[in-house]
């Protein structure tokens, strides 16, 4: 009898997880992509990109 109860509770938890995913996706409003106007030729943008790349390279070296 306890085996049957544990099986039923396992099945109900799986169903509720699937239902929660469906509810979460249905509740999300349609997101619109925001256009971002960035001047890729601007010197500030290039400096920022180089700084990010250098930090990432340092992180990769530390990781090894």
Automatic annotation (TrEMBL):
<feature type="compositionally biased region" description="Acidic residues">
    <location>
        <begin position="32"/>
        <end position="43"/>
    </location>
</feature>
<dbReference type="InterPro" id="IPR052142">
    <property type="entry name" value="Calmodulin_Regulator_PCP4-like"/>
</dbReference>
<feature type="compositionally biased region" description="Low complexity">
    <location>
        <begin position="1"/>
        <end position="18"/>
    </location>
</feature>
<comment type="similarity">
    <text>Belongs to the PCP4 family.</text>
</comment>
<feature type="region of interest" description="Disordered">
    <location>
        <begin position="1"/>
        <end position="43"/>
    </location>
</feature>
<protein>
    <submittedName>
        <fullName>Purkinje cell protein 4-like protein 1</fullName>
    </submittedName>
</protein>
């Amino acid at each position: 009898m306890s085996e049957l109860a544990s099986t039923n509770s396992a099945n109900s938890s799986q169903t509720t997880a699937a239902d929660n995913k469906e509810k979460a996706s249905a509740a999300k409003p349609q997101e619109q992509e925001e256009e971002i106007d960035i001047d890729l030729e601007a010197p500030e943008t290039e400096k920022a990109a180089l700084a990010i790349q250098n930090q990432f390279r340092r992180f990769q070296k530390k990781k090894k």
